């Protein structure tokens, strides 16, 4: 068949959202599209949105699952505020996502699903495809299901398997529209259905049919191209925050030459770290699914006492349960990494939604004066480096470290410039092997003058038998002590040794060098804050951006940085927890800007807020 | 045995330099002395022995043992010890806990450690009271117990710790008494030889808040009529009575005459050991001591370690090379 000639348009960026029922395979479709896009060399940022229920009734609003991918020919910082293209596999997917679409957006709908019954399920009296309500959008009606089944008529697969392949039809169509290379998807299908050659063939056929549909029908007159982005040379891979975090922990085990022991209790959105680490036993990784979060951290602490790199991964409710054991680890001065993938609270809150509301708990949420180190990754791939940094601090300074990730970075993905293994930090530690006093005694709380860390004397070391515990310890000897002066000394020492951990200075991005306003963020808000600042600068406004990775201790230069600006704005996905710390500690009139919707900031929200501050003070 | 001689350890070697601070007359002293005297028999170097405890009078125990030790937090010792034991198969890990520590705040960890069959020796000092917090009733106190927190008598039924342990799939379950050093040490010996979790309940007198709780089975005037000594291969009797399995009944019964059953702790079906634990209620009227159950099942430690070892053996390349492979896995692309 002779294909009509198609116009090719160049774009610099596109945001596509794939939305469907949770059974429609939208996460997989989005993942594949992302992978094809990565192969092409665009910069990418993605964000999935899962329904809270595992299998909400089919075709209902709570059952909608979506995956958004933003790709561009320049470096981008967020998964995009609003989709330019929505792929809606059923009426529920259309209804749930329509409000996010700007006028003029393309909507590709699976018309086969727009039945009276499905429309009624989500409260459409009339089909929106027919009542004119979508007039401001470019709607592309495609009978995705029947076209897929038609293409598979000869294939011999069941009707059910055929229907299931409709996501590949959609992927083929979108891959054609955006000129994506598809070899990796074909390879993927071969791997995924290795045991079912009939399904490999069916899914490939469906993909090809979708592609051909774009090429041959008149419904789609334009094809788009997005040139590769200029990215640093090197090998890349697309990665989510949770995956990167798990790999960072494996890297820490390799670079420290220590066995890794993970104690965890399943909880959204942290479970994927447990799943990932449980696959890497060959690196000496032991994972234990404990009976609860208290046991999970207890086992990790027990392993750390025995000389392992002890890690526990959880979300806010789990950190609350772990509090008493974290205090014990602080008293024992043992290395331990506690990962909190934050979600919206309080209580069960919104488990699949994001928030930064555990900062106070990380910094202050324990009994007694119980200081520890806190760090937060700023993007999905940064989770790798943040995990290594958490392990480095824990091992070098013998302290628990809380790593504050959140649902946004944990499930989002971006291209990751793969580090070279030899350039990763060397995390080797020395266990104590001999007495540490001149008269041949072993004092478990005699500190290294440089790191203020006490010796890590693991059971099995002859001559160093000693007892430790949660009761207050006498300086140096570690014997139980109720001496008032000793307690005062020990409390102050525990605080001082955390504050003395050297952390890198905070960098300020102030290209015009004359900004009056500094926007200060931490953790996952880096992307939207950065995108907002860029947009303002492009419009001729000046603004400075600083982003904190280390929240305890804070960088030594932070006070000076803050003092250099007339106005400091602190956007957070909480009610102002970092802002309160900044105000208390530096007596700076930091202005909080807060959003607690369970959704990440959009760059547009921050841009308009910051524009107002820059212009009106 | 050769190693024992080479080690030449004595009870004194297991005494730490810390002053023991229990109330004078407390049953914990007798247990400590019995354990310290028993330890050299293990023929394990001191540095490979670790005592982990929770919180309570009993949980001060590790401070007095010249081994490695951790006095942790209330109820959590089994969890902490699980992480230690699973990652350090070379160690002999002992847990010391109290009735409140193990059965109240730490109940969850105890049952899961037993279910997993972690290679831990768990010594539960049961004084049927909260000692350290000065005398509240505990989950093993008899119903109606009058204490500071229950002036009108406690309203809740106690646990039978051994029945609970068996319900949690424990592979080794035993009971002994603080004041009977010989028996205590024989039970420790059997526990130490057991691979997997060994659960030992030790009746311990708190002479301050619950004095005489176990007198019925300690006092020479009464004990012979109330104490049942379980011995492998021996008929089970108490005074002039026999422990029998009446036809058509699920449990065991103490009665005059009949054929006493012959004790066998290795019976796989836990129903037998369970029936033994039900011979006594909190009235101690017919209380068995000794090893109730002693069966073999792979320990959590063994299984977990094997998985890691197998994965390591199948792997090729240095850890750094493997890491490089892991980071570069999946769909990658290169920008020149
Ligand atoms: C989280 C927590 N809750 C409460 C306590 C107070 N507390 C310490 S020991 C104890 C009970 C101890 O009873 P048991 O385990 O029977 O030990 P015993 O003192 O009788 O040997 C309690 C409630 C604590 N230390 N920690
Ligand atoms: S209170 Fe009771 S259990 Fe505690 S030390 Fe004193 S006698 Fe022993
Ligand atoms: Mg007690």
UniProtKB/TrEMBL annotation, chain A:
The entry's keywords: Oxidoreductase
Domain Pyruvate/ketoisovalerate oxidoreductase catalytic positions: 23-210
Alphabetized Gene3D superfamilies for the sequence: 3.40.50.920, 3.40.50.970, Pyruvate-ferredoxin oxidoreductase, PFOR, domain III (3.40.920.10)
Entry-linked InterPro entries: 2-oxoacid/accept_OxRdtase_asu (IPR022367), Pyruvate:ferred/Flavod_OxRd (IPR050722), Pyrv/ketoisovalerate_OxRed_cat (IPR019752), Pyrv_Fd/Flavodoxin_OxRdtase_N (IPR002880), Pyrv_flavodox_OxRed_cen (IPR002869), THDP-binding (IPR029061), Transketo_C/PFOR_II (IPR009014)
Pfam families in alphabetical order: POR, POR_N
Listed name of the protein: 2-oxoacid:acceptor oxidoreductase subunit alpha
Origin superkingdom: Bacteria
Occurrences of domain Pyruvate flavodoxin/ferredoxin oxidoreductase pyrimidine binding (ranges): 261-477
TrEMBL record, chain B:
Gene3D superfamilies from the UniProt entry: 3.40.50.970
UniProt entry keywords in alphabetical sequence: Oxidoreductase
Keyword Oxidoreductase assigned: yes
Residues in Thiamine pyrophosphate enzyme TPP-binding domain copies: 55-202
Domain of life: Bacteria
InterPro entries given in the database record: 2-oxoacid:Fd_oxidoreductase, THDP-binding, TPP_enzyme_TPP-bd
Protein name per UniProt: 2-oxoacid:ferredoxin oxidoreductase subunit beta
Source organism of the structure: Actinoplanes flavus
């Amino acid at each position: 068949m002779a294909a009509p000639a198609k116009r090719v348009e160049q774009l610099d960026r596109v945001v596509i959202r794939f939305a469907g029922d949770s059974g429609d395979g939208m996460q997989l479709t989005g993942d594949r599209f992302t992978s094809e896009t990565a192969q092409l060399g665009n910069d990418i940022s993605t964000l999935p949105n899962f329904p809270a229920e595992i299998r909400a009734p089919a075709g209902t609003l709570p059952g909608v699952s979506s995956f958004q991918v933003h790709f561009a020919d320049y470096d981008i910082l967020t998964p995009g505020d609003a989709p330019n293209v929505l792929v809606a596999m059923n009426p529920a997917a259309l209804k749930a996502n329509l409000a996010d679409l700007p006028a003029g957006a393309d909507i590709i709908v699976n018309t086969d699903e727009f039945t009276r019954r499905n429309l009624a399920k989500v409260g459409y009296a009339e089909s929106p495809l027919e009542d004119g309500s979508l007039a401001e959008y470019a709607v592309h009606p495609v009978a995705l299901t029947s076209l897929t089944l038609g293409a598979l008529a000869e294939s011999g697969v069941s009707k059910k398997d055929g229907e299931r392949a409709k996501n590949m039809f959609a992927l083929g169509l979108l891959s054609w529209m955006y000129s994506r290379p598809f070899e990796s998807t074909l390879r993927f299908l071969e791997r995924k259905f290795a045991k079912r050659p009939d399904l490999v063939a069916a899914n490939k056929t469906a993909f090809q049919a979708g592609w051909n549909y774009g090429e041959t029908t008149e419904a789609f007159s334009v094809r788009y191209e997005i040139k590769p982005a200029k990215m640093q040379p090197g090998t890349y891979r697309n990665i989510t925050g949770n995956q990167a975090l798990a790999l960072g922990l494996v890297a820490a085990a390799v670079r420290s030459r220590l066995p890794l022991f993970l104690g965890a209790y399943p909880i959204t959105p942290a479970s994927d770290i447990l799943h990932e680490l449980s696959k890497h036993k060959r690196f000496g990784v032991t994972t234990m699914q404990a009976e609860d979060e208290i046991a999970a951290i207890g086992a990790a602490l027990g392993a750390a006492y025995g000389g392992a790199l002890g890690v526990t991964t959880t979300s806010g409710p789990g950190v609350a349960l772990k509090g008493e054991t974290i205090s014990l680890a602080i008293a024992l001065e043992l290395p331990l990494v506690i990962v909190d993938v934050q979600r919206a609270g309080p209580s069960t809150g919104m488990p699949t939604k994001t928030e930064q509301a555990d900062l106070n708990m990380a910094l202050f949420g324990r009994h007694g004066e119980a200081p520890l180190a806190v760090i937060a990754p700023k993007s999905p791939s940064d989770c790798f480096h943040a995990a290594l940094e958490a392990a480095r601090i824990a091992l070098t300074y013998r302290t628990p470290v809380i790593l504050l990730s959140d649902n946004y970075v944990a499930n989002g993905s971006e291209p990751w410039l793969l580090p070279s293994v030899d350039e990763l930090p060397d995390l080797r530690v020395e266990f104590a092997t001999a007495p540490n006093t001149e008269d041949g005694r072993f004092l478990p709380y005699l500190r290294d003058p440089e790191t203020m860390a006490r010796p890590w004397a693991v059971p099995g070391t002859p001559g160093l038998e000693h007892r430790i515990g949660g009761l207050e310890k006498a300086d140096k000897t570690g014997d139980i002590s109720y001496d008032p002066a000793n307690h005062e000394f020990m409390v102050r020492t525990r605080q001082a040794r955390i504050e003395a951990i050297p952390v890198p200075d905070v960098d300020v991005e102030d290209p015009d060098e004359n900004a009056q306003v500094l926007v200060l963020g931490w953790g996952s808000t880096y992307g939207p804050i950065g995108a907002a600042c860029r947009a303002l600068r492009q419009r001729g406004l000046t603004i400075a951006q600083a982003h904190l990775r280390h929240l305890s201790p804070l960088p030594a230069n932070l006070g000076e940085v803050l003092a250099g600006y007339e106005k400091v704005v602190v956007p957070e996905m909480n009610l102002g927890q970092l802002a309160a710390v900044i105000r208390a500690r530096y007596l700076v009139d930091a202005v909080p800007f807060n959003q607690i919707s369970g959704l990440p900031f959009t760059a547009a929200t921050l841009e308009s807020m910051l524009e107002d501050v820059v212009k009106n003070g | 045995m050769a190693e024992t001689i080479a080690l030449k350890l004595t009870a004194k070697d297991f005494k730490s330099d810390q002053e023991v601070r229990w109330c004078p007359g407390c049953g914990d002293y007798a247990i400590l002395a019995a354990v310290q005297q028993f330890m050299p028999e293990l023929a394990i170097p001191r540095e490979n022995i670790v005592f982990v405890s929770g919180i309570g009078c009993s949980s001060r125990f590790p401070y007095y043992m010249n081994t490695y030790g951790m006095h942790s937090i209330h109820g959590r010792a089994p969890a902490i010890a699980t992480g230690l034991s699973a990652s350090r198969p070379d160690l002999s890990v002992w847990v010391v806990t109290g009735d409140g520590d193990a059965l109240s705040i730490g109940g969850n960890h105890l049952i899961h450690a037993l279910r997993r069959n972690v290679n831990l020796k768990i010594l539960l000092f049961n004084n049927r009271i909260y000692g350290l917090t000065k005398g509240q009733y505990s989950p093993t106190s008899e119903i109606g117990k009058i204490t500071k927190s229950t002036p009108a008598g406690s309203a809740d039924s106690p646990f039978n710790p051994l029945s609970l342990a068996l319900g949690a799939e424990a592979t080794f379950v035993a009971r002994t008494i603080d004041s009977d050093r010989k028996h205590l040490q024989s039970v420790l010996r059997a526990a130490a030889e057991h691979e997997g979790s060994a659960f030992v309940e030790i009746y311990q007198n708190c002479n301050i808040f619950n004095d005489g709780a176990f007198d019925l089975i300690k006092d020479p005037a009464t004990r012979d009529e109330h104490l049942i000594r379980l011995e492998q291969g021996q008929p089970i009797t108490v005074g002039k009575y026999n422990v029998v399995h009446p036809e058509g009944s699920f449990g065991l019964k103490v009665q005059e005459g009949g054929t006493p059953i012959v004790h066998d702790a290795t019976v796989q079906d836990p129903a037998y050991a369970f029936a033994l634990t039900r011979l006594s209620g909190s009235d101690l009227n017919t209380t068995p001591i000794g090893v109730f159950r002693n069966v073999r099942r792979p320990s959590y430690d063994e299984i977990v370690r094997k998985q890691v070892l197998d994965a390591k053996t199948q792997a090729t390349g240095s850890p750094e090379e493997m890491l490089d492979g892991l980071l570069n896995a999946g769909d990658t692309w290169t920008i020149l």
